[in-house]
Amino acid sequence: MVVDMELQEAKDAVLQLIKDKEKIESTLQALKELLDSNILQNQIDMDESLVDSEGYPRQDIDVYQGIQVEDLILEFGSIHYRNFKSLTDIGKLVENSRYKVINLKIKRGSNVIVLSLTPRPWVGKGLLGCNVIPLEIVER
Q: Which helix (H) or strand (E) holds 80?
């Protein structure tokens, strides 16, 4: 009788471990799909460091969107060179687009790249995690 109870407890423990394993595998699969989709959309670069120079996790949102220093913004959502008046236009668009995707067309070197970003609060100032500054010399 004691052996039967121990056997049943062992079976129950094995069944619980199988359920736990299936749950973990399901979670891992969902995370893998998310990671794969973000890599394909250029939102995550597996070659970038995840920590800053002091070893702390990076907090800049633009890291996830692929924006880099010296990128030139050609289009920012509905704003482009024909209707751009000032950076206030971009600020208003960003503020009105919290948690909504904004498409960007940027020039990096001689390449034109299309990116998307979603303005949202973060630990720093603003909603983008980067500074947008005007270009003094316009290339056309």
A: strand 79-80
Residues 42, 66 contacting (CB under 8 angstroms): yes
pLDDT tens, residue by residue, 90-110: 888 988 988 888 898 988 888
Instruction: Enter the pTM of the model.
Output: 0.48
Helix (H, G, I), strand (E, B) or coil at 125: coil
How do 72-76 and 102-108 pair as beta strands? antiparallel
Tell me how far apart the alpha carbons of residues 129 and 94 are, in angstroms, rounded to a whole number: 12
Whole-number Cα distances in Å, 8 to 13, 14, 16, 20, 26: 9, 10, 12, 18, 27
Instruction: Name 115's Cβ contacts closer than 8 Å, sequence gap at least 6.
Output: 42, 65, 66, 67, 103, 104, 105, 106
Between CA 111 and CA 48 the distance in angstroms is: 20
How many CA atoms lie less than 13 Å away from 115 in the CB half-sphere? 24
